[in-house]
Amino acid sequence: MVEKRSKSERTRERILDAAAVVFGGQGYLARLVDIAEPAGIQTGSLYYHFKNRDDLVREVLRLGVDTTWAHVRSEVDALPSSASSIDRLRAAIRAHAMAVLVVSPYAWARARIAGQAPAAIGAEHRAHHARYGDYIGSLVHDAHSDGHLRAEVDPYVATMLVLGALSWTTEWFDANGTIPAGDVADHAVRMTLDGIAQPPA
Amino acid sequence: MVEKRSKSERTRERILDAAAVVFGGQGYLARLVDIAEPAGIQTGSLYYHFKNRDDLVREVLRLGVDTTWAHVRSEVDALPSSASSIDRLRAAIRAHAMAVLVVSPYAWARARIAGQAPAAIGAEHRAHHARYGDYIGSLVHDAHSDGHLRAEVDPYVATMLVLGALSWTTEWFDANGTIPAGDVADHAVRMTLDGIAQPPA
DNA sequence: GTCTATATGACGATAGAC
DNA sequence: GTCTATCGTCATATAGAC
């Protein structure tokens, strides 16, 4: 029992987990009591751990970026050094899809409430998120420079369209449905890189 | 001045326009006073035109589907009868992109609050939206049947990924920026059908 | 049709007991 | 650390004036 996280830290984590699910489902204006209840505490007790609603939202948004980024980077870095820039991009797209679909409820919540937060929080978050966007953008850029992408592709627009297709899966993907998340991720990779059209023979 | 819409109809339209913007920005739980104000009326006056918040939400969701669908269908139907199934799909993707980007704030609002509405409204809306999804799905299916798409493409997943990439443009596209909406739409069509990868020579 | 005024009830946040 | 109690604020919806 050595090294166990403090009671406070464990409660804080339960609150954040609940907040990710509830904010993701109901939006930024979700009621705090709906977060406190699944976390197993009373509404008033939230204020021992967080200053107010926006403090809680800020943390969920930050974790949304960080958990996704950590997952994507670990997958990309796990590739052998012989991997090409297009291999790395492929791995990143798949990892991002999996992060949003199944790995992190924070990524899911982030996708759905980032645009709803008040201006101050939104700006702070966008600055943080942009650093991750730059990371993905650099992978697209490298593949572009190496001639793996069509010359006329605009790396910025392509990056945004790819991340958009993946973020949007939160709106229709049913985790309890019949389509495995891995299939969606594979489809996203394939569609992004090769398109869905049958190439001329 | 003949045939002018009644005062009531014009006010109702101002309310709906404001509701689309506010619900789209703040989410389903946005305050009604924030809708009444830009519509130029008092909060209480909303209730002459709509039964309650959910009645208003329901109408915004419906218009989100209908305005997009009408725009897409008119573009597809404008094609010459000699157009192939892949031509029709291409036109639909482009028209959907333009509807979301510049034609209809309702399409934007719909995308962002559909997942937040209470179960009853959500179910009703999903049934309505599914009919539009079926329309797009039929275009994908026809192209698939005609051998224009790779055999292994799942028409449903592909449809959702395409619509997602387009819907998400609302999160990053800047109508006052340097990138024309038409360019984004063209990029989306190209990426969807042909991918961004350079095909093997 | 739209306004003002209001009842009713919720929610966020604080203070103090334990 | 968490609870209970409570204050102040705000939003929804209604009623009746104009």
- CATH architecture classification of the domain at 59-196 in chain A: Orthogonal Bundle
Number of DSSP-assigned strands of chain A:
0
Query: Helical amount among residues of chain A, as a percent range?
Result: over 70%
Query: Order of helices and strands of chain A, N to C?
Result: HHHHHHHHHH
> Within the CATH hierarchy, at the fold level, what is the topology of the domain at 59-196 in chain A?
Tetracycline Repressor, domain 2
Q: Which sheet architecture does the biggest sheet of chain A show? A: none
**Residue-averaged pLDDT of chain A:** 91
Class by alpha and beta content of chain A:
mainly alpha
Strand content of chain A: under 5%
Low-confidence stretches of chain A: none
How would you sum up the global shape of chain A? elongated
Structural features, described:
2 copies of one chain form a homodimer. Chain A is mainly α and 201 residues long. Chain A has a domain at 59-196: Tetracycline Repressor, domain 2. Helices cover 71% and strands 0% of the residues of chain A. Chain A contains 10 helices and no strands. Chain A has helices spanning 7-26, 33-39, 46-49, 53-77, 85-103, 105-113, 119-145, 155-167, 169-172, 181-194. In chain A, helix 1 (7-26) crosses helix 6 (105-113) and helix 7 packs across helix 8. The longest helix of chain A has 27 residues, at 119-145. The mean pLDDT of chain A is 91. At the A-B interface, helix 8, helix 9 and helix 10 of A face helix 6, helix 8, helix 9 and helix 10 of B. Chain A binds a DNA duplex (18 and 18 nucleotides) through helix 1 and helix 3.
